Amino acid sequence: MGWVLQTDEKYFIQVFNDETIESYEVPICPTLVVTLTNGTYYSTYEPNDKEETVLNSFYRLNTDTGNKLRRTGS
Length: 74
Description:
Helix content is 0%, strand content 57%. By secondary structure, it is an all-beta fold.
């Protein structure tokens, strides 16, 4: 989808929020991807975390165009 960018051994998720673009640095880590009828949901987890604590969660609606990815509330 083009939403993870790699620069200098670091990975970033770009989140499009209306007219603004936010970038979040994310580790290479386990990711849960769930496809729903209205879009796709992504959650990233800390490696080797038995509690499976969510680091970040994002979603992309089917109606979104381009590489738009939205951050869920935390």
